Amino acid sequence: MKLRRDPFQAIADPTRRAILLLLAAQTMTAGSIAENFEAARPTISKHLQVLQECELIDSNQKGREVFYEIKVDKMKEIDQWLEQFRKIWECRFGQLDNLIAKLNHKKP
């Protein structure tokens, strides 16, 4: 049975977020990903495993190399979930802007 994790568990870690940013730009091998971090390669491999279990990345073997790529559809799901919070905060900031404008107009 394949272990499934919550994608938010994956993006909670700054190293995994950085890996996702790297993979958003291009497909990469584990070795080329690891070169961007001071962590040991097995640590990066563990991060890649978590990202795969969360279905945020995919791996494809080409010859002796395994290439990792971001799964855009899964990232879109996260973005759609976050959108509801963006709307709430935009509304709140708009209300704050209106309050500040009113207070500034009341000053002599």
How is this structure best described in words?
- The protein is α+β, with helices and mostly antiparallel strands and 108 residues long.
- It has 2 domains: 1-70, Winged helix-like DNA-binding domain superfamily/Winged helix DNA-binding domain (Arc Repressor Mutant, subunit A, Orthogonal Bundle), CATH 1.10.10; 72-108.
- It contains 5 helices and 3 strands.
- Strands 1-3-2 form a 3-stranded antiparallel beta sheet.
- The longest helix has 35 residues, at 72-106.
- It is elongated and about 75 Å long.
- The N and C termini lie far apart (70 Å).
- 13% of the residues are buried.
- The model has no long low-confidence stretch (mean pLDDT 90).
- Keywords: DNA-binding, Transcription, Transcription regulation.
- It comes from Echinicola strongylocentroti.
- GO terms for molecular function: DNA binding; DNA-binding transcription factor activity.
Features:
single chain, 108 residues, alpha+beta, 2 domains, three-stranded antiparallel beta sheet, 3 strands, elongated, Transcriptional regulator, HTH_MetalResp_TranReg
Question: How many DSSP E strands?
Answer: 3
Q: Which structural class fits the helix and strand makeup?
A: alpha+beta
The fraction of residues in strands falls at 5-15%
Q: Count structural domains.
A: 2
Number of helices: 5
Termini separation = 70 Å
Mean pLDDT: 90
Major sheet details = 3 strands, antiparallel
CATH topology of the largest domain: Arc Repressor Mutant, subunit A
Helical fraction: 55-70%
Oligomer: single chain
CATH architectural grouping of the largest domain: Orthogonal Bundle
| Rg, Å, rounded | 20 Å
What would the principal axes of the Cα set say about the shape? elongated
Query: Which H/E pattern describes the elements?
Result: HHEHHEEH
Enumerate the strands of the largest sheet in spatial order, edge to edge or round the barrel.
1-3-2
CATH class of the largest domain: Mainly Alpha
CATH homologous superfamily descriptor of the largest domain: Winged helix-like DNA-binding domain superfamily/Winged helix DNA-binding domain
GO molecular function, one term: DNA binding
InterPro entries: ArsR-like_HTH, HTH_ArsR_DNA-bd_dom, HTH_MetalResp_TranReg, WH-like_DNA-bd_sf, WH_DNA-bd_sf
Protein name: Transcriptional regulator
Pfam families: HTH_5 (PF01022)
